[in-house]
């Protein structure tokens, strides 16, 4: 039996691993301060997403409309050597430049291109430097009027002669321990896992199934930066996606005990235009995370959902349409916020009632199959969990971990069981489980731990779903980070 708790701080490592962590304190001379860089700026320029490696500056510039004109820099007359530090803007004979780890790059670029370059450099240094930097705009207290999608504005459609494939990315846990070496490194590994899955499966859609970030490890209001990084491999391939919240996505910051040792608290640098109030150790709300995702990503199908379901945010339904007619549904996908973090781990009576009413409204005769997604398993998962490996009615490769369910059952499962159209429920949360087990005519499935963040050292992967139209079927399997496939199961036919 594995000693775990999906609700605890997910960066927890063994005592031995904790002892060998680099005890690093940020060197003040390695800090970077870039004013006006938008939090949530594009992150896909940070990596070669198909190979999972960091791009060089010359390569970064290729994503912009105009190529830079490079010139030899000379800083001897304008800047004294002792006064040069990474991130400082300098003036010299070739125009303007920025010093990055003791290498000075000069450029002659339009101001817009310069701003975009600074965004990329800032984002990369945030991962590689042991320091926290707060940007001026979009930091969580931004009061701009952002309109959220709460009604259908576009649809998903099966390609003629093909199936509709979905990849589930569960428990990525981006943003853990950014003040260490291993924190940013594991985020890069998570990008590589997602890239491998996307390139092997070529899904039509991706579901981010909660715990996209570990907010309790993110000390300032820049959680959307890590959220955006998690979206980057999917966005880079122009693959549409939807997301739901998990218990760690807006959890309160947990102060590491080692910060109170001799190494001290890593410095938090704020722009002079930002008041000290914004430098405090507090997180980004569910609502702001959703606003930022929707505002900055054309391929996001995520929605806030009905405001009367507050404090839960990501409650909505998407239609998968017929290849011949976009108005004819082949399946409905329902997404729910299962709570945790800033409020209890629960699906409320209000959410259950919303599903009952909505499903009757758009699928009154229950003829169209319905698929359900949320993060934390319901108590029903604990009841159907196999008692030993290889239970004859269950399909999967990991069975030994104990299910960590929601705190209470408020009627959702009763409604789901009562609808013949509901085929399967998919959850994450338990990193050491990937099984599908039947609950009468309904299948209850775990996804596969996708990210290198969070507890556990099991190999990473993704649960894949495949919907075929005529005749309808729902198949699933696990695709691993090394490319191999296992645990095929037919969930409906």
UniProtKB/TrEMBL annotation:
Annotated spans, Disordered: 1-27
Source taxon at top rank: Eukaryota
Gene3D superfamilies (UniProt xref): 3.60.21.10
Residue ranges that the Swiss-Prot or TrEMBL entry lists as coiled coil: none
GO cellular component: cytoplasm
Chain ranges of the Calcineurin-like phosphoesterase domain: 164-431
GO molecular function list: hydrolase activity, acting on ester bonds
Alphabetical list of PANTHER family matching this protein: METALLOPHOSPHOESTERASE DOMAIN-CONTAINING PROTEIN, PHOSPHATASE DCR2-RELATED-RELATED
Identification of the protein by name: Inactive purple acid phosphatase 16
């Amino acid at each position: 039996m594995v000693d775990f708790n999906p609700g605890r701080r997910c960066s927890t490592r063994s005592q031995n691993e904790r002892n060998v962590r680099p005890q690093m304190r940020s060197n003040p001379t390695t800090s970077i301060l870039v004013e006006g860089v938008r939090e949530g700026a594009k992150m896909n320029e940070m990596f070669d997403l198909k190979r999972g490696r960091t791009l060089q500056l010359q390569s970064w510039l290729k994503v912009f409309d105009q190529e830079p004109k490079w010139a030899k820099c000379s800083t001897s007359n304008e800047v004294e050597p002792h006064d040069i530090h990474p991130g400082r803007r300098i003036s010299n004979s070739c125009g303007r430049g920025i010093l990055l780890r003791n290498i000075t790059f000069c450029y002659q670029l339009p101001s817009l291109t310069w701003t975009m370059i600074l965004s990329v450099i800032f984002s990369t240094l945030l991962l590689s430097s042991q320091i926290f930097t707060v940007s001026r705009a979009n930091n969580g207290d931004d009061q701009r009027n952002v309109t959220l999608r709460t009604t259908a504005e576009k649809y998903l459609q099966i390609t003629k002669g093909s199936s509709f494939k979905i990849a589930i990315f569960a428990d990525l846990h981006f943003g853990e321990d950014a003040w260490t070496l291993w924190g940013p490194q594991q985020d890069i590994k998570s990008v590589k896992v997602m890239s491998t899955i996307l390139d092997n499966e070529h899904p039509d859609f991706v579901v981010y199934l909660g715990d996209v970030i570990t907010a309790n490890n993110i000390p300032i209001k820049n959680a959307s930066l890590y959220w955006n990084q998690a979206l980057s491999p999917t966005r880079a391939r122009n693959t549409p996606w939807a997301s739901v919240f998990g218990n760690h996505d807006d959890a309160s910051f947990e102060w590491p005990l080692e910060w109170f040792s001799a190494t001290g608290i890593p410095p938090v640098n704020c722009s002079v235009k930002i008041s000290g109030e914004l430098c405090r150790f507090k997180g980004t709300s569910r609502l702001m995370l959703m606003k930022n995702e929707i505002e900055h990503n054309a391929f996001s199908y995520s929605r806030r959902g009905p405001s009367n379901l507050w404090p839960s945010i990501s409650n909505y339904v998407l239609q998968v349409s017929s290849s011949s007619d976009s108005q004819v549904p082949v399946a409905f996908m329902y997404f729910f916020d299962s709570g945790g973090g800033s409020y209890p781990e629960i699906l409320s009576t209000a959410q259950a009632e919303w599903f009952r009413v909505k499903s009757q409204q758009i699928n009154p005769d229950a003829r169209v199959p319905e698929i359900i997604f949320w993060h934390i398993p319901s108590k029903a998962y604990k009841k159907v969990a196999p008692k030993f490996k290889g239970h004859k009615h269950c399909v999967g490769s990991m069975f030994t971990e104990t299910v960590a369910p929601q705190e209470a059952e408020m009627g959702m499962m009763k409604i789901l069981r009562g609808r013949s159209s509901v085929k399967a429920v998919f959850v994450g949360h338990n990193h050491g489980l990937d099984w599908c087990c039947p609950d009468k005519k309904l299948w209850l499935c775990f996804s596969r731990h996708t990210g290198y963040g969070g507890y556990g050292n099991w190999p990473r992967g993704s649960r894949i779903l495949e919907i075929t139209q005529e005749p309808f079927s729902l198949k699933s399997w696990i695709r691993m980070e090394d490319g191999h496939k296992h645990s095929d199961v037919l969930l409906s036919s």
